[in-house]
Design brief:
275 residues, alpha/beta, 6-stranded mixed β-sheet, 10 strands, globular
């Protein structure tokens, strides 16, 4: 059985010209695998992740069906949905500077993520937090647990976010541009960390990114989105054989390490208009 099934998902917002679909009829299945969703800014990637967790608020409207482990998430009450967010499905946001509470210590915030879903003695809670900080490869976890958000680096803050999202031991992790706020030197470390944790815990992963080569390295399958729709779906290993003009345009626009072209090509959007 699939871990997640998304059927005809639509997310729309009002404009002076009428409602506009930012996600338009999206459908896909996910097992215990790593799925990459790629596309330009505004293609609907992040809205897809938020819609799965029912984080779209009015005036946004969400239609379709999201089935998780045999349960239709859109049929649940808000109170029932809270038992799924974090505990069964977690989402890593783009920038830890805006996701961590500035007036709470790192350890307290990780504890809170666990306390919402489990009742544990204080000593057991502290032990779980320490274990999770060690799992995300933070040295001296007891000291780091006492720090505030402004006292940690961007890379460490992202590791803290990963620890916070994974401490309830979810079955599905949605990572929305998890390395966009990090230096190139630590991006690979964070992605390898996520990859190891997903494999070790038998989780499903949705990795949202605009970086096609990066997603091709860390995912099993890839969905390419444009204007709220999937224009191409392929195995990550076959991305270089993409056939859709939009995907080809994205790949052609990626700079190479030993670039010889005088200028990067500009995508001709008329090639896929209306597709």
């Amino acid at each position: 059985m699939n871990l997640l099934s998304v059927e005809n998902l639509c997310v729309s917002f009002p404009t002076p010209q009428g409602r506009v679909n930012v996600v338009d009829g999206l459908s896909f299945d996910l097992g215990q695998e790593r799925l990459g969703i790629v596309g330009e800014s505004g293609s609907g990637k992040s809205m897809t992740g938020r819609a799965i967790l029912r984080l779209i608020r009015p005036p946004g409207q969400v239609e379709g069906r999201v089935n998780f482990e045999g349960v239709d998430l859109f049929s649940l009450s808000e109170r029932q949905m809270r038992t799924y967010r974090g505990a069964r499905i977690s989402m890593i946001m783009q920038d830890p500077r805006y996701s961590l509470n500035p007036v709470m210590t790192v350890g307290t915030q990780i504890e809170e993520a666990l306390r919402v879903h489990e009742r544990l003695p204080k000593r057991a809670m502290k032990a779980r937090v320490r274990e999770m900080l060690e799992a995300v490869r933070i040295n001296d976890p007891d000291r780091v647990a006492q720090l505030y958000a402004h006292e940690v680096s961007g890379g460490m803050g992202q590791r803290v976010m990963i620890a916070m999202m994974l401490i309830p031991r979810p079955k599905l992790l949605i990572a929305d541009e998890p390395t966009s706020a990090l230096d190139v030197s630590v991006q690979g470390d964070v992605l390898r960390l996520i990859d190891d944790l997903v494999r070790d815990h038998g989780m499903g992963l949705i990795l949202i990114s605009h970086d096609l080569p990066l997603v091709a390295r860390y995912c099993d399958r890839i969905l390419v989105m444009n204007a709220g729709r999937v224009v191409e779906s392929c195995d990550a290993s076959e991305l270089h054989n993409a056939t859709h003009p939009y995907t080809k345009g994205l790949l052609a626009a990626v700079p190479q390490m030993h670039e010889t072209r005088e200028e990067l090509p500009v995508m001709d959007r008329t090639l896929w208009a209306g597709t």
